[in-house]
Specification:
Largest sheet: 8 strands, parallel, barrel
Helix content: 25-40%
Number of strands: 13
Strand content: 15-25%
Radius of gyration: 21 Å
Distance between the termini: 43 Å
Order of helices and strands: HEEHEHEHEHEHEEEHEEEHEH
Strand order of the largest sheet: 1-2-3-4-5-6-7-13
Length: 386
C-alpha cells in the first residue's frame, strides 16, 4: 500500500498542472483497504456485472454521516456514486446496484506522462478493488480553453487509460464522466465526443445552470425544461451516443436573496450584478444563492408569502418568503411535478438514463417527510416503469 501511495505522489508531481487539480479527493488513497469482505454474504463483494438497459445514476456525498441511503428505492436505482461505505456496498450489491468512487486528484498533465499515468491508474484500480467498488466517476470541472488542444487530449488519455485498466481488472466495471449542462459552459471546452467514447456513461450535470447569467439578472429555475431539451440535443449533435447519456437532475432548490425594494409577492426577483461574478460573467448564481435540500424546501414552503407558484414555460415551481432580516427571497426548486416532465423527456428521447444530485436531499424522519420523499420516487417511475 505504501508503494502505491508513493507511486501516486510521483504521478501527481509528474503531472505538473497543480492549477487544474480537482477540488477534493473523494476516494481517499490513505484509506486502509479492508482486510476481508465486510458483507455477511461474501458473494456481495463481487463486482456487479449486469448491464442495466435503463440507468438511474445518483450521488451520495462522502462523509454524509447518516443512514438515509437505507430508504432509497433500490428497485429503481442502478448506480450510486461518491461513497466507499462498506455497509452501503453490501446493501447496493444485494440489489444488483453498482457503487462507484470518485477519482483522486490529478492534473491534466498526467495524461502526457505514460509512466506516471500507469502508476496512477494502477493505484486507483487497487483502491477500487480493495473497497469492493464497481468503478469510478470523473468530475473534473476546471476550465480548458478553446486553444488548449493538448489539455483536451490529455484529459481524454487519462479517462481512456482508467477505463481500460478497470475493465481489464474488474469485469463489468463502469467509468463515467460528468460534463456541464451544455457543451463548453464555464469555459470547459472539452472534447465531449471522445470523452463519451472512452467512458461507459456520460453524465450531464443538468443543474446549477445559472452560474453564468447572460440575460436578465434575476432569480430563475435551476433546471428549466426547455433547456433540458437543448442540452440533450446539443450533445447528440456533437456525436455523443444516446446510449451513454445520463441526464443528471437536482433534488434541491436555489434560494435567491432579492435586491432591496422587491415586494414579498413580486413575480420577479432581481439579484446583484456586483461581486466577483463567475469566470468572466458578472451575474452569477454562484455568489447569490444558497443550495437547499428538497426536504428543507418543503419545510419552508408553508411559511412563504406567495404559496407554491408555477412557471409554465420552464415547468418549475417557486415561492417567495421573507427572511429574519426582513429581506425578500425567492426559492426555485424541483419537485415531483417538475421532475416528472423531465423524466418523461428522458424516456421520449431514449437516452440511457437519469438520476439525482443527490439522494440525501430527501428526508424520511416523519410521516409527512416520507410522503414527500415517496412522491419524488414515484415521479421517477415515469422513466423506469417500476
Amino acid at each position: 500500500m505504501l508503494v502505491a501511495q508513493t507511486m501516486v505522489a510521483a504521478a501527481i508531481a509528474a503531472s505538473g498542472d497543480f492549477s487544474k487539480f480537482t477540488e477534493d479527493s473523494r476516494l481517499d488513497f490513505d484509506r486502509a483497504i479492508p482486510a476481508e469482505c465486510p458483507c455477511e454474504n461474501k458473494t456481495l463483494c463481487n463486482p456487479i456485472t449486469v448491464q442495466h438497459e435503463k440507468e438511474v445514476f445518483g450521488f451520495l456525498k462522502k462523509g454524509a454521516g447518516n443512514d438515509t441511503y437505507l430508504n432509497l428505492d433500490w428497485s429503481q436505482v442502478t448506480t450510486v456514486a461518491w461513497t466507499t461505505d462498506p455497509q452501503l456496498v453490501c446493501l447496493a450489491h444485494s440489489h444488483n446496484v453498482r457503487v462507484v468512487g470518485s477519482t483522486p486528484r490529478f492534473g491534466l498533465g498526467l495524461g502526457s506522462n505514460a509512466t506516471a499515468l500507469a502508476a496512477w491508474t494502477a493505484s486507483l484500480t487497487e483502491q477500487i478493488q480493495g473497497n469492493f467498488l464497481d468503478g469510478v466517476v470523473f468530475d473534473y470541472e476546471y476550465p480548458v480553453m478553446l486553444e488548449d488542444d493538448n489539455l483536451r487530449t490529455e484529459y481524454n488519455t487519462i479517462v481512456n487509460a482508467t477505463t481500460v485498466a478497470l475493465h481489464t481488472a474488474i469485469p463489468g466495471s463502469q467509468t463515467s464522466v460528468c460534463v456541464p449542462f451544455v457543451p463548453n459552459h464555464d469555459n470547459r471546452y472539452y472534447d465531449f465526443k471522445t470523452l463519451s467514447e472512452v467512458s461507459d456513461l456520460f453524465y450531464i450535470m443538468f443543474y446549477d445552470t445559472r452560474t453564468q447569467i447572460m440575460e436578465q439578472c434575476i432569480a430563475a429555475p435551476n433546471a428549466a425544461y426547455q433547456l433540458a431539451i437543448s442540452s440533450i440535443n446539443q450533445y447528440t449533435y456533437l456525436g455523443v451516443n444516446k446510449s451513454k447519456i445520463i441526464l443528471g437532475l437536482p433534488w434541491y432548490g436555489k434560494d435567491y436573496k432579492c435586491l432591496p425594494g422587491t415586494g414579498e409577492k413580486d413575480e420577479f426577483c432581481k439579484i446583484p450584478w456586483e461581486g466577483p461574478g463567475w469566470r468572466g460573467v458578472s451575474c452569477s448564481a454562484i455568489h447569490n444563492t444558497v443550495e437547499v435540500h428538497f426536504s428543507d424546501v418543503m419545510l419552508m414552503l408553508p411559511n412563504s408569502t406567495t404559496g407554491r407558484q408555477w412557471n409554465n414555460y420552464t415547468q418549475t415551481p417557486y415561492f417567495n418568503y421573507v427572511a429574519a432580516d426582513g429581506s425578500v427571497h425567492q426559492l426555485w426548486y424541483d419537485d415531483a411535478e417538475s421532475l416528472q416532465a423531465k423524466y418523461e423527456l428522458v424516456r421520449k428521447t431514449m437516452i440511457r438514463g437519469t438520476g439525482p444530485f443527490q439522494f440525501l436531499d430527501l428526508d424520511y424522519s416523519t410521516p409527512l417527510a416520507k410522503q414527500q420523499a415517496q412522491s419524488m420516487w414515484d415521479a421517477l417511475k415515469v422513466f423506469t416503469g417500476k
